[in-house]
Design brief:
single chain, mainly alpha, Methane Monooxygenase Hydroxylase, Chain G, domain 1, 89 residues, 4 helices
């Protein structure tokens, strides 16, 4: 099941922000920045990536709820969705 529309674009924007954060962390390491500052940025990037993942999963769940027959045909059973959610949690 392919995610489409506005939700997809929102997730892409979030991922680009995370990508920028990761590049920023790399720069900080190259510059020899303070450990506390670097760890703070790692934590922020991790939270941002987690939020993007939950947004993606939430949008997928909404699509499955809107089209349960299509979701089932694509292999999105309740059990599979639960396993995916537990991987994120």
């Amino acid at each position: 099941m392919e995610l489409a529309g506005q939700k997809r674009e929102e997730i892409i924007v979030r991922l680009r922000r995370v990508e920028g954060q990761i590049r920023g962390i790399q720069r900080m390491l190259d510059e020899g920045r303070d450990c506390g500052d670097v760890v703070t940025q790692f934590a922020a990037a991790e939270r941002a990536l987690e939020q993007a993942a939950f947004k993606f999963f939430g949008a997928t769940m909404a699509q499955c709820a809107d089209d349960p027959v299509g979701a089932a045909q694509d292999g999105y059973t309740a059990e599979r969705l639960e396993r995916m959610f537990l991987r994120l949690a």
